[in-house]
Amino acid sequence: MTPLLCHDVFKRRSGTAVLDAVSLAVAPGARVALLGHNGAGKSTLIKAVLGLTGIDGGTIAVCGDAPGSGPARRAVAYLPEAVAFQGALTGREVLALFAGLAGERRADLGALLDRVGLAAAADRRIATYSKGMRQRLGLAQVLLGRPRLALLDEPTSGLDPVSRHDLYAIIDDLAAAGTAVLIASHALTELEARTDRIAILRQGRMVADDTLDALARAAGLPIVLRVRAAETGAADRIAAETGGARINGTSIEIRCAAEGKMRALHRLSGLGPAVADIDIAPPGLEDLYRHFSGGMS
Ligand SMILES: Nc1ncnc2c1ncn2[C@@H]1O[C@H](COP(=O)(O)OP(=O)(O)O)[C@@H](O)[C@H]1O
Ligand SMILES: [Mg+2]
Q: Closest residue (by CA) to atom 4 of ligand 1?
């Protein structure tokens, strides 16, 4: 049973479509990034999957069940955009509470707190936790129920780079255990290598849904060759011969389609010692995101 199937989902808010014909499927063990600018509809889609907000058209099925139904709720774990916990309780107490609710009374809370890097802070009041530590506690709660589907809304916000690294390691573990993971984010760096598929929402419409490679091919974005000339005089000649653009003293940038890369490299090698160095930059997620989502993030 597919953990998440959204078909032609439509939702209106104050007369405007905030979700417009959105279809999305997440298979067991898949890690899907749901990208889009602020206001694109990511959180709304997640809340609709949880059954926290209704939809005006289309269908959503969580392991075949309706959002918000008993079986669907048992199958899903959710890390909200703003994690709010009772500040007077300790991390361990909160987790014990959630374990009770999830029917996981025998869960090894110590191991779980250790897994998210909170072992040392487990018995401190949450009021003393940083934003990143609250985020980690939220993640421990996600891991607790061994969900079929995990919905993480902006999980990296407020995390330092090391914590992000840990977060992605945990996401990989979840996926390896068969959980379907949907990660909503408007922060792109480091998602690149960590997800199997990228879905991009733009003003409520799904404008892309594929692997990074396939999206790069579909977008036809140029590859950039950065060339360093051996000396200033050679830079003009290299630019003229290759159709590149001078960036500064000895740097030239050549933009070409993927198919044109080898031709450009042959031309450069024909220039012999005039070329001191070459750097090849394929389009990254940032470029793709800009292409599909329209404008800067
Ligand atoms: N509770 C709400 N009431 C009315 N409009 C809302 C509410 N929550 C979100 N919106 C609107 O719905 C649209 C999508 O928002 P949201 O799903 O939060 O986007 P994202 O999570 O991608 O930033 C935005 O235009 C936002 O202003
Ligand atoms: Mg949001």
A: 13
Domain range summary for the chain, segments of one domain joined by +: 4-210, 221-293
- Give me 137's structure tokens: 């506690």
- Residue of 42, 44, 50, 152 with the most ligand 1 atoms within 8 Å of its CB, for mutation: 44
Same topology, domains 4-210 and 221-293? Answer is no
Nearest residue by C-alpha to atom 27 in ligand 1: 39
pTM: 0.84
CATH number at 4-210: 3.40.50.300
293 in contact with ligand 1, CB cutoff 6 A? no
Q: What is the residue-wise DSSP string for 62-106?
A: ETTB-TTSHHHHHHEEEE-SS----TTSBHHHHHHHHHHHTT-TT
Q: Right CATH number for 221-293 from 1.10.101, 3.40.1350, 1.10.10, 3.30.70? A: 3.30.70
Here the tokens at position 140 are 């421990």
Decide whether any atom of ligand 1 lies within 6 Å of the 215 Cβ: no
Q: How far is the CA of 41 from the centre of ligand 1 (A)?
A: 6
74: Cα separation from own chain's centroid:
24
Reading the block at residue 97, the tokens are 């509470």
**Distance in Å, CA 204 to ligand 1 centroid:** 10
Mean pLDDT by 10 residues, the chain (297 residues): 97 95 97 93 97 97 96 92 87 91 81 92 94 88 90 84 81 93 80 81 94 83 92 90 90 89 92 94 82 69
Atom of ligand 1 nearest to the CA of 154: 21
